[in-house]
Amino acid sequence: MELLLEFIQNTGFGMADFRHLVMIGVGLIFIYLGIARHYEPLLLVPIGFGILVGNIPVFKGLGLGIYEKGSVLNYLYFGVRQGVYPPLIFLGIGAMTDFSTLLARPKLILLGAAAQLGVFMTFLGALFLGFLPKEAASIGIIGGADGPTAIFLSAKLAPHLVGPIAIAAYSYMALVPVIQPPIMRLLTNRRERLIRMSDPREVSPQEKILFPIVGFLLCCFLAPAALPLLSMLFFGNLLKECLVTERLAKTARTAVVDTVTIVLGLTVGASTQADVFLTGKSIGIFILGACSFMVATAGGVIFAKVMNCFSRDKINPLLGAAGVSAVPDSARVVQMVGNREDPSNYLLMHAMAPNVAGVIGSAIAAGVLWSFIG
Amino acid sequence: MGGFSGISAGNGWIISALGISVVFFGLASLAFIISYFPRAINWWNDHAQTPRHVFPLLGGVFGKGRRKVPSILGEGTIHEPGDIKDAEEALRLLTAHMGEPFKLPRLIEVAEQRGLVRVHSVINRLLVRGIIVGGADGLFRWAKGSENEGPLDRYNGDTTR
Fold first, then answer.
1. Is the N-terminal amide bond of A328 cis, ω within 30° of 0?
2. Cα distance from B78 to chain A (closest Cα, Å)?
3. Interface probe with A: pick from B14, B25, B27, most Cβ of A within 10 Å
4. What ipTM does the predicted assembly reach?
5. Mind listing the pLDDT tens digit for each residue in A297-347?
6. Nearest-CA distance B124 → chain A (Å)
7. Are B34 and A106 in contact, with CB atoms under 8 Å apart?
8. Which of A33, A102, A278, B59 fits as disulfide partner to A353, beta carbons 3.0 to 4.6 Å?
9. What are the phi and psi torsion angles at B140 (to 5°)?
């Protein structure tokens, strides 16, 4: 009988406390949102299951937990801790992304820059709330709306916050369709939302090949700390556009990115062990994360309106919201909001330009923060 | 330490101002350079065709390959076999990547993307001569043994037009 009681005490049921249950609840919500609501399922399902994995109470010292040296999860977590996975994700993103709309209308790139306002305002907000500069920079990058970039920077500057920051970044990316539309509607009037964009010009294959090379050289000379992310992004795109490495491009955008997404999602989820995750700091991170998305959206929309004051060729200010780099969700939101006003106005293609510019912008912002604070 | 003193202590104002400036400068420069891509590519294409007028000193190097054709043919003729031979070789390289059998529309699309001219016409000639053959599955492949045949032999009697 004593043996049985001891066994029960040593099971997960015996060792669990309310914090584990809270986190398991969070994991289940992620899985539900991914499967039932189709909110970023490729990310939320692995992360959600990872949260379940990380919150099974286990013996310390048996080499089971993600933070215990020598455990399987710890080996997989190495790629997060050392910033290995985010550049590989960027490789896949590069191999998937068509920069044609950006090349056709270069001025829309500025909207991707304007949305990075969210990064730096949140950085200031985090410092205001008493976070250390390295922590504040890691929290600020949530405003870039780019999960891999957020993980990369926080792994470099504040490894103890990787879990909460990644969860906040991906949660808000999944909630882009909820967070952005009210801000977009608040900052624009109906007349502005009805603006139609002219068809973009045709982009030649030579331009598409030239872009990743020129873009890489320019951006990395300017912000060398962004090298791991931007080099892989542009390299992936060159593989895609040069047409002679189709096999490599296909592998990068399928097998590589899928494998890394699985491991990254699972380990980031597992890193949210209740005792590490449920702290006051995590709550602060979540509040700041929400603010950063709002500021980034507002920054893009307002900048688009400012551009309209100086430009003869008006742009639909809703496009500014796509400057946050949640690809392609924020572009879809622009299409959705614009479509509600005029069902025959197709903004998706145009919104992809600031959207992919936002990816480059947030990587540069991460590089800048790392070089200033790292 | 938090509040405004926390921001000042962490150099928050300076880092933010410089950070957003660097991001803007970087992306604005990129936008500026991209806007000149079409002009630069057109300029390159134009001058690569007539390099002797622009680069007198380098003209010999640039014009080497291009002068070869008229010197063989003389004035007023277009050398079909040379064109088709080159095009066939290029198409063989492409299909080596694509794998056999291949879809003709896909081959045409890829060939055009790679800058081959008169792709439809070239492929039509290869089909007529049985160098590319169609299968019952609707896909196409190179005729067996066609790669060993000398292209000039193949096009004998159709050297000029």
1. yes
2. 28
3. B27
4. 0.88
5. 999 999 999 999 998 888 999 999 999 888 888 999 999 999 998 888 889
6. 24
7. yes
8. A102
9. -120, 155
